[in-house]
Design brief:
It holds the Pfam family MRP-S33. By secondary structure, the protein is mainly alpha-helical. Helix content is about 45%, strand content about 0%. It has five helices and no strands. The protein is elongated. The N and C termini lie far apart (about 75 Å). The relative contact order is 0.04.
């Protein structure tokens, strides 16, 4: 002997009221499991250290002062040496070359 559906729904309503859950007779995906979880944003924000002022920031704040950035000078020198050996970055294309494209007929 089968129990009528209305009685089962009444039981599910009472059960959801007692255990403070969502009454969902159609079993639709509502995302309640995700929404009940603890928020992750504050934990992720505290994981990474705060950003401190860099040399670029100081240079932008005080453009009138002459500053020497040893790391930047070293980087530029390294790039210049690599270019002189032919190992630098390739030059950027100025105009797209359309002669190599296949034409549709």
């Amino acid at each position: 002997m089968a129990v009528p559906r209305s009685r089962i729904l009444d039981l599910m309503k009472a059960q959801s009221r007692i255990f403070s859950t969502i009454f969902n007779p159609t079993n639709a995906r509502l995302g309640n499991k995700i929404l009940r979880q603890r928020l992750r944003g504050p934990a992720l924000a505290t994981y990474y250290p705060r950003r401190v002022a860099t040399f670029k920031d100081l240079k932008a704040l005080y453009p009138s002062y002459e500053m020497y950035d040893a790391f930047e000078e070293d980087r530029l020198e390294h790039i210049q040496i690599a270019k002189s050996r032919g190992k630098g970055a390739p030059k950027k294309k100025k105009v797209a070359d359309t002669s190599n494209k296949k034409r549709k007929r």
